[in-house]
Amino acid sequence: FKVQPFDPPALLSHLQSHGIDAKATLQSRFGTDGDGPSIQFTDPEGNGIELKGY
User: Fold this and answer.
1) Interatomic CA distance for residues 22 and 16, integer angstroms
2) How many domains does the chain have?
3) Which of 5, 7, 15, 44 lies 20 to 30 A from 37 at CA?
4) Has residue 2 been placed in a domain?
5) Is residue 25 part of a domain?
6) What percent of the chain has pLDDT over 70?
7) How far is CA 6 from CA 2, 39, 45, 48, 52, in A?
């Protein structure tokens, strides 16, 4: 999912406050709009999710 504004500390804090284990990885990844920061994690049902900023 594309997220704007992309604030990694706020996003990780929000995920943790909802019980999502935010051992999330924050790094630059290539996507539709080019390179940008992203956070990947697994939701409580085991689905992989990526939040991406540009």
Assistant:
1) 6
2) 1
3) 44
4) no
5) yes
6) 78
7) 9, 10, 24, 19, 7
14 has a pLDDT exceeding 70: yes
Cα 52 from Cα 54, distance rounded (Å):
7
Question: Which amino acid, one-letter code, is at 27?
Answer: Q
Residue 22: domain span: 8-52
Helix (H, G, I), strand (E, B) or coil at 5: coil
Residue 50 pLDDT more than 70?
A: yes
**What stretches of 1-54 adopt beta strand conformation (E)?**
25-31, 34-42, 48-52
Asked if 49 and 20 touch (Cβ cutoff 8 Å), the reply is no
In a domain, 28, yes or no: yes
